Amino acid sequence: MAAPLLSIRDLTVEFHLRRGIFTAVDGVSFDIAPGEILGVVGESGAGKSMTGSAIIGLIDRPGRISRGEILFQGKPIQNLPVEEMNRLRGKKIGMVFQDPLTSLNPLYTIGHQLVETIRRHLPMTQEQARERAIALLGEAGIPSPAERIDSYPHQFSGGMRQRVVISLALAAEPDLIIADEPTSALDVSVQAQIIKVLKRLCESRGAAVMLITHDMGVIAETANRMIVMNRGKIVETGSVGDVIKRPREDYTQRLIKAIPSIRDETIRHAVPAADRPLVEVDKLTCDFMLSKSTLDRLLGGARSKTIRAVNEVSFSIPKGSTYGLVGESGSGKSTCARMMVGLIRPTGGRVLLDGDDVWAPGAGSQKRRRRVQMIFQDPYASLNPRWMVGDIIAEPIRALKLASNRAEIEDRVADLLERVRLDPASMKKFPHEFSGGQRQRIAIARALSSQPEFIVCDEPTSALDVSVQAQVLELMRKLQDEYGLTYLLISHNLAVVRQMADNVGVLHGGVLVENGPVDQIFDDPQASYTRMLLDAVPDISRVN
Amino acid sequence: MSTTPPESAAQIAASTPPGWFRRAAQSDILYSFRRSPIAMVAAFVTAVLVLAAVFAPFIAPYNPFDPSSLNLMDGFTPPMSSSFAGNYFLLGSDNQGRDVLSTILYGSRVSLFVGISATLFALTLGTALGLAAGYAGGRIDSVIMRIADIQLSFPAILIALLIFGIARGIIPPSRQEGMAIAVLILAIGLSNWAQFARTVRGATMVERQKDYVSAARIMGVGRFTILFRHVLPNTLGPVLVIATIGLALAIIEEATLSFLGVGVPPTQPSLGTLIRIGQQFLFSGEWWILFFPAVTLIALALAVNLLGDWLRDALNPRLR
Amino acid sequence: MLAFILRRLLQSVVVMLFVALIAFSMFRFVGDPVASMLGQESRLEDHELLREQLGLNDPVFLQFARFIGNAVQGQFGISYRLQTPVTELIFSRLPATIELAFASALIALVFGVGLGVYTALRPRAWSTSIIMSASLIGVSLPTFLIGIGLIYIFAVELKMLPSFGRGETVNLGWWTTGLLTTSGLRSLILPAITLSLFQLTLIMRLVRAEMLEVLRQDYIRFARARGLSQRTINFGHALKNTLVPVITITGLQLGSVIAFAIITETVFQWPGVGSLFVNSVQVVDVPVMAAYLLFVALVFVVINLIVDILYYVVDPRLRVDARAGGK
Hints:
The complex is a heterotrimer. Chain B is mainly α. Chain B has helices at 6-12, 20-35, 37-54, 56-59, 100-136, 138-153, 156-170, 173-208, 211-218, 223-259, 271-282, 288-315, and strands spanning 81-82, 88-89. In chain B, strands 1-2 form a two-stranded antiparallel ribbon.
């Protein structure tokens, strides 16, 4: 190997907090060779982002580098004075952050921000810098860059903004790019394009990349070498193929086993036969009105605009099975879910539960409340922080008056907690005393407490780490068999859907483009959109 | 990603999660209280002043409003000296021979009573309207918030003066003195509700979007139950902060109105009235008649303000 | 842009009508206007005559319309207390208030923004803690006590500055100014400082809080990662983003200076509209109270309009949204 571009030796980052010293990065050592792409993977709290921030000198108080060395092109840079570090940032080391929506200053045009960066590091006139900026934007795949350069960030979509961010990071031809979860905030299809852009631009310039992500699939498709981190320490280092196919360490093996794959051939459970599906969705439609003020109508004369979020979607779910609804953001999948549980009134169409319209006044909605429940994405927002777990789980029982006796309610809550593998003593605790995965279990217990038949799960695991995700999915599956539950599983994660669902629907722009048994859709997709989606998913099985 | 290190934050989150109020209430509040000498001093000063006001009849050396005990021979006695009539005055006496210390004790009673009542009134009104606006949305929301906006752009003192003037025009002169305190509380309360409404509305709009409210709606929990059992408790943190700072503002407002001569009746002087009286003698050298009530007022307002400031920081760890 | 301004104008008119309704209700229902005008020793026939003349027997809606018609022409009737036309009274006292308000708004803005930025950029300096503590004391000090304190120190003890009044004024025909004479300027110093202190602390705390918030944003972190100089980041990026939300609240704060002047004018016996108002409240001189209320509302509405337009100029997001909305 040639002389390393970046060499980290025994790097330790500590936070002095009032509860004691917290070590975010603990004695980490690794090298990055010129031009290589190094993937750094780990679950939340692994210290991977902190390592990146340490290299570029952006650790905020109360954190500090307490030990170790960062050698860039052979010179230590961990203790450079601010001005020297400023000249290094952007010029020698560039950085790309996770969220393109907040990375750009909303008050300046992207041209201004590019020119400002270029002129800071390269001796160029305003005109030269502007020309270079246009060229960079073009290379990053922004269409008609000469016109778009004077636009403001909010006039671009998320994916386009991330291209601008990458152009900015590359503006002064740095030798190293630190990309911290550069695609995690983006849709799968956009994610694939951004990874390509990043890879292409860095290759053409010979810049090395340190790619930090929680998504092993992204690394499998992009990086040459990879590092697995856990709790501030490096667990395993090696070529991407070796680590993914032949992991040596226990932790890595468990991590990789927990990752679902879209190639996954899970053992299907038997769906009991029935003459009629439990849930029937018939031409479900939802319009959102973008209302205009009276004055606007007077001045413009235009009628108010409506957006059709869900357009005549029809599918059915047999009792005891799981229906997976996939789509990217804005596809209308969450709106669908909310119409089915009674949160948004449909503009048209019907949702039938056992033949009854859930939106019918009286009996229909009463039935719905008893028999339909929902599990939400964010385990922090779905539990009232000021309620005790026992009260949270008992809420449906009390609201639906399924039991009024105190002792009886307590017994049922204790039983439910055991079912979701939590200690019954938890009922006297508050949500904040639990981790994300445990909270999702509490949410599941609440959903089960009214003994529903049908549970709508809206991205139930997308806020969780992969290992926790695997546990929650397993629990959901077990409960399904135990109670004969019917699930609607909404997810942007195709691998999760492949693992869990019996039937799948693909939503695109509010329209159900494809609908059928899971294996058929994944192995032989008919709609071009589904094919594109499946191709775009970074998957660990694609390791080269 | 914020500038607080995300990973460490996540890791710490194992023990400290975002149920911020709960967390704050359990440990951080007490911890930060013990760590903040300013908060402790402020709490101590507030407690002393409040207790002194509550027990004024028992600890005041004289009853300054008992006409029979007044003696003009006691007038203008400087602090820490005895008058011609032989009475000792720790903080001096005023033109009518009233003990300044005693008038301050009784005056703080009036000031605190008006301040606290007005704040509670503003809190109740503002919280109710804020909840209604935030939860109902639409037209109700825009009407309430528009009124709050207008109200907020006029200084509280102007609104209070107006309400006071109107009340004076409506209430027959014979009953004005008896109702003066009630009018004052109404005027100050009505001029301060908008802050509460705005804050509660903001918090309500955040909370009602949260999934736990959706979960409750799915199982058919009623609107009002959701509002009072789910949403309201989660808005109380910021309300507490505003109430504390609002109390300081209300005390100052009362003093200002009384100073302008439109506040409490002369038979029940508050700190502001005392300052108004003392001002007449400031330039002739009898500084103590103004000085001690002024110091008490400032100490009270400052202590309550410091408590509010500390509370805001303690409940919002991000700002530290 | 046109639609945007029109919409704001329309809102302003609604606000003014709302305030006018309050003013009218005061005028009509607080006390008996006829009794107030004629005094107690008057005959019942005169009462009835005046009622008819004033149109008090007409339907309330018509009276309100007439009230607005008169208000637009600047007619608010005659002060009960001084028996002079209200408009004349207010105009004779307006210059004093406006000069005072402008002087203190300037002080509050310059020092408020300056100190706010300073303390945000040096969050851990000892000077910041001192300024922040001082600002808290500033918020806790009632304005009238600040005034009294300044008078005591600078007028009574040091005898450097006058303690009351406007000093010598120069009559420019339609405007009497105190800014052209030394004694006028010297008289302005203490009241202007007194009036500015409260707004100054508010603006400073607001600017500081906003700037700290902006400095926490991702785009500032990204700007640092791009290697921009500290100066560019602080003053090119952070300050501009801070000013967007600050403009609104600061603008309204400055507007309220005029109404806040009530207290300062009373303490310094400054012959402005504020002290006129206080005197009117004490004797329930409704025409003056109503006119003053409308005057302050007008100031608020005008400033609000200016602020909205400024906001629109500064924030490109708003510009595009408004354009899209006004299509």
